[in-house]
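Re: your question from the hallway

Yes, I did run it. Sequences:
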Amino acid sequence: MSAAALQLVDLHKRFGVTPIIRGVNLDVKQGERHAIIGPNGAGKSTLFHLVSGRFPVTSGQVLLKGESITGLAPFQINRRGLARSFQVTNIFPRLSVFENIRCGVLWSLGYRYAFWRLVERARDARERTNFILEQINLTARRDVPAGVLSYAEQRALEIGITIAGGADVIMLDEPTAGMSRSETEHAVALIKRVTEGKTLIIVEHDMSVVFGLADRISVLVYGQVIATDTPPGIRANAAVQEAYLGAPAAQAEHG
Amino acid sequence: MSAVIQRGGVLTPWLVAAAVVIVLPYIFSSGSSLTMMSLMGFAIVFALSYNMLLGQTGMLSFGHAVYYGLGGFMTAHALNVIGAGKWPIPLPLLPLVGGLAGLSFAILFGWVSTKRAGTAFSMISLGIGELVAACSLILRGFFGGEGGISTSRTSTLRLFGINFGPQIQVYYLIAAWCLLCMAAMYAFTRTPLGRMCNAVRDNPERAEFVGYSTQMVRFIAFCVSGFFAGVAGGLAAIHYEIVTASVVGAGPSGSVLLMAYIGGISFFIGPVIGAVLMTALQISLSDYTGAWMLYVGLMFVLVVMFAPAGLGGLLLMHRPLLAAGTWRRVLPAYALALVPASLLFVGGVLLVETSHHLLVKASEGSAMRVLWIPYDAKSPAAWAGILALLGAGLLALKHIGPKVADAFHGARLEATSKLSAP
Amino acid sequence: MLELIIFSSLNGLLYGLLLFLLASGLTLIFSMMGVLNFAHASFYMLGAYFGYQISRYVGYWPGLLLAPLLVGGIGALVERFGLRTVHKHGHVAELLFTFGLAFMIEELVQMVWGKIPVDYRVPELLNFSAFTLFSTTYPAFRIFMLLMSVAVFIALLLLLTRTRVGLIIRAALSHPHMVGSLGHNVPLVFMMVFGVGCGLAALAGVIAGPALVTQPAMAASLGPILFVVVVVGGLGSLAGAFIASLGIGLIQTFAVALNISVADVVGHLGITLTRDSIGGDLWVATVAQVAPIIPYLLLVLVLIFRPKGLMGDRDT
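Structure:
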């Protein structure tokens, strides 16, 4: 019995008459670190949006831990244990860093829509928030409004909010986009740290990140998965090399 | 130990506020002052309830007076029923009836209203406001037709000899409820739901992705806001002893929006400032000039254009300057700014007043006076003077404005570096 | 009965087309600039008053051209010096700015022309009855209003579908950011669109002024219905606005003509309901009395069953 954390079954997505996702089948095992790569316009972010409920599916199914989450609202999917980050930083700019994380924590601790208890009294929320802040190295910036953080700090906060709720399937959409070499290294170390024991699905363009982090890689081209394999297998795959026009795949092989 | 000190620190502003409220009538003891302070009391509650929607959850409503007015009507009806049946319910409990009415109608209309967000929500709130206002002509029993519903606050159970006839007693009733509601609404901002309201305001999409249904957050905030609006309406009903259909209409809906925004929607204290200021202006200005509504509208537009954080925002942005002691730096520039400010102010007032006199009071002839200075509203010299004042003011603004901005930014920069240095 | 149907249809069509004249300008401005012009009905009112003032000097017909041009110019200036300043503060600030503007326009109009309605007269040329049906006459001016509205509508349609400008506007209706990226002078386009939108509203005012009452409250009474039309039609959809305008125009006009109440209807079945029965007011109110709230009831119904409006697809 394979413990499949996430299953995509014959997923299709059309915008008007234009097909973007044209039949994707994917199985991600529990605890696996799975990367999705592909050329620009392949539909990677769209796939994320389909899974996390931001876009409705045209046909096909998404199964989370065996249960169908197709067509559910984002908050319903999140409550079932799937959390995602965004390619374009999507934080709460006017709240402090601490409050940003705390917002990610509240539902998972069962506070729901409570307006009859003070949030300052919620010690478990505070402790968990501090713990997450430590993990993403933003404890020193806890009272700063999130909107004034540097770009790399905001990306770290983005990841922090995503993992704060304790979801066991984490989806990260290009977490290192726009980062320098050293910032990327820190980010990768952070991602490895915070996704210990969880299922990670990550979309990335940076090949060194992908090959250093992933257990398995899927390659998405024109809305279809053309290959799913371990990193060495993907590196050697002729169809993948062709799809990438050679250069990036060759670079990663030597890098 | 630190918890006790923290506790003391949290409670102090409220104790000070309570003390001020108790002492005020001894300083301003005239009848008209008491009336004005009573009006401010429920205006504050109304404006704060409105800001639960706008400033805290990002929902711009053009029909909030529905819950205020319906709360008032229910309170008036309840008061009449209690008075007629001699039920042993004391007057201080009546605003609760208003609150429950506001809550009920907010639940009824809120579910439909919160189905959409943003501009659509604003238009829906406008539509529902018009719906209820138009119903007032149809449902004559509830709304009392043109005459409205009259009531008497002295008809309830008398406790400790207080019958709430004199204005001073009404003032203390309103003040007590005002403080209670302020504390409750402030506490709301410190609850999990209150925090998520801010999150939904900042980024509704992200809020969904941390497990919260934005519609549910907005709906509950809408209901709680409706409750407090209803309380304000109940207090108004008790004060005026009459409720007419205009109280659910565009007038109060518009003025509460103005109050909250001019005061500053990003700060809890903002609507309080706005409510106090607007009530004072409304009462005092209307004695001096027939064009006071135009002034209020102009002030609102200026705030929207140049000070979107409101007057409260303008004041509170000086906080770091006060904390670091760099406020002295801006004093010369601010003093200089009085030049364009007074030129534009005097010029503007003269323009409005002269035009008003010519257009509206044409039958009284063209002689008029502002303060002590008489002049002829039609004389070219007067108009030349007015335009010269305005022109000079704009010129001065162009030159002095940047200096003021620079002085402020310099002072703030110095303040933040001082405060963050170890 | 037939008389009622014919005249109500004509009047309903007229009212609906008038609403659409206003709603189309509003939708164009909203689709291009993302701001719902709360003062749109105020520019309609300005058009009526300017037309009135012009008619006092040179008659009605010059006003038909001059008033929209003047008001359109004012609109362009408002966009350039007002909206543009507020644009950087976000959509809420823009909406509030137009709200404050509506407030001030109403006060200014009251100050200049007074609070009582002004006598904006139907031009002599059209001051006759077009036809008589079953003993009721129908004024020629109303036929003129109908024809003018249809003419403007056709001109708009041609502009949007046959010209290059129209192509740009249609593109901006669904993808405003893309239009800017394609190199068009977006600030200038905004100013022109806002000006033209306000000019259209003013034209509606000049057309409607002599037939409906020209008074300071005309903006406040038409405004909310206008916003209901665009929300019911679907924010950003011209076709939706058209359907909603005609729908609301016809329904409300027919309703005003019906002087029956629930009590009347059940009375035929032998049940007696009066003002003193429980919920008395509801049963005794005639459809004509309820007519003012019909647009808002429609709004609530549409929101329950089709929250995005009849044809809306853009979320705000």
